[in-house]
Amino acid sequence: MTSPHIPPPGSLEEDAAYARVQARFPHIYREIFSDPKAPRTVVVMPSMSLDERELAKIEGVIHYEERMLCLLMLLRLPRTQMIYLTSTPLDPAVIDYYLHLLPGIPGAHAKERLHLITAHDQSLEPLSKKILDRPSLLEQLRRAIQFPEAAHMACFNTTAYEKTLAVQLDLPIYGCDPALAHLGNKTMSRKIFKQLGLEVPDGFEDLRDEGDIVEALVALGERNPLTHEAVLKLNDGFSGEGNAIVPIASILEAASPRKELARRLRTEIRFEAGNENWESFVEKFTTMNGIAEVLVEGEPKESPSVQLRINPLGEVSLVSTHDQVLSGPSGQIYQGCTFPADREYRRYLHQAGVSVGDELRDRGVLGRIGVDFVSVRDTEGWRHYAIEINIRKGGTTLPYLMLEFLTDGSYDPHTGLFFTPTGDPRFYYATDNLVREAYQGLTPSELIDSAVLESLHYHAASQQGIVFHLLGAVTDFGKIGVLSIAPSPDAAKRQYKTAVDALDNATGATGSEG
User: Fold this and answer.
1) 241 and 272 housed in the same domain
2) 442, 475 Cβ separation under 8 angstroms
3) Does residue 360 contact residue 391 with C-beta atoms inside 8 Å?
4) Quick one: what percent of the chain has pLDDT higher than 70?
5) What mean pLDDT is predicted for residues 144-161?
6) What is the pTM of this model?
7) Which long-range contacts (C-beta less than 8 Å, at least 24 apart) are formed by 209-212?
8) How much is the mean pLDDT over the chain?
9) Domain count of the fold of the chain
10) Listed residue (263, 200, 311, 238) closest to 56, CA to CA
11) In-domain check, residue 3
């Protein structure tokens, strides 16, 4: 039975309680965040509260909860307590690996202030729901919070589950109100971009079902006779896994293009996710709805992004820019990134990103956001098409935060570069998807041992080197993440390649990145 002191989930009473909890956050932010010695509790909720059918497309996705282990670097603040929640237990070697990276704080001191809580549940249900479904675990979490008046929750993304958890714990969330999460879906992204005057690929929003898909694709083909392909996107797809490519040019040459398109969609559509099929895609499309737009063509083509933060005081800050590394049948699945984005268009990314950030701030959004583009260069320079808004943390969050925490440096929004306290620039190359069959069966400890033997580690003195993550996925999936920090973009890529070659030689691996 629901406690009379806790409003029922989804009720108006819960909405009011959540508003009261969040109203405390500006004061906490103003008083606590600026004081490195202030006592505080950070509850890290790395729940990927996304569609379970889409999550299932990502190998080892349960271990993506480790992406937020970069926040362990906050334990360098000497009076910060951290509570880190996971679906399955973290390997102690992984925790030790991160704690030994902490600058200026003994690992043992940090470990005393770290509290790990696990649900012991490998299902793809959101971690936040797993916690809510276990009253004893929720009570354990509640009792573990040492500084309730100076505590907040850091989430990967914020849904109704995280909202309910915030109310039941009486903790504000540094993240977007779930009522505003729709502002980051594919349909609303296009609408916001067009409202702000940003160029988008020709397309249609608010598509509901197969009939809408056919009508939209026919119209796109008629309006763009030289375009060969269109892309369908689920509103709440992520990492490109919810996208599909349709070859519209040849289909529209038929005498009855609508009938021909409806017939050939089933056989000629190409899904970015290898385990997708038409029936499943249409079912999800009918549930989530989505968009259709022409596939941007041209060479060279890049996929830059800009990251921003909207703090509890309503201030919009530039955080970083990246050029994304993409793969998949048509190059739409996120694999990794280089930092920063190309200098030829960093200034554009800043301007466009801030305009989106200001708009989302005015609509009440809080926390990290990312804006993705597809950019092609012609005789007049780069042409940028705004593609989507992500109101959550993402694949670029961990590498950038690790760079920031490890070096104590900062991002310069004027140059788009990152500088250490001594004024030296730093760059990186990062991936979430270094996959080798030969890595399977290795424990995180064994992989770390191999890396140490090959001198593949980050050097605090030189402020460059290799940092590993997603280590929990190595045993079952042969999958790890790699961050290469160096004084130049070329050096970061060379260092990354050297590290991969060394690991492959040590394990007898062959193949290529997944």
Assistant:
1) yes
2) yes
3) yes
4) 94
5) 96
6) 0.92
7) 209/282, 209/285, 209/286, 210/262, 210/265, 210/282, 210/285, 210/286
8) 91
9) 4
10) 238
11) no
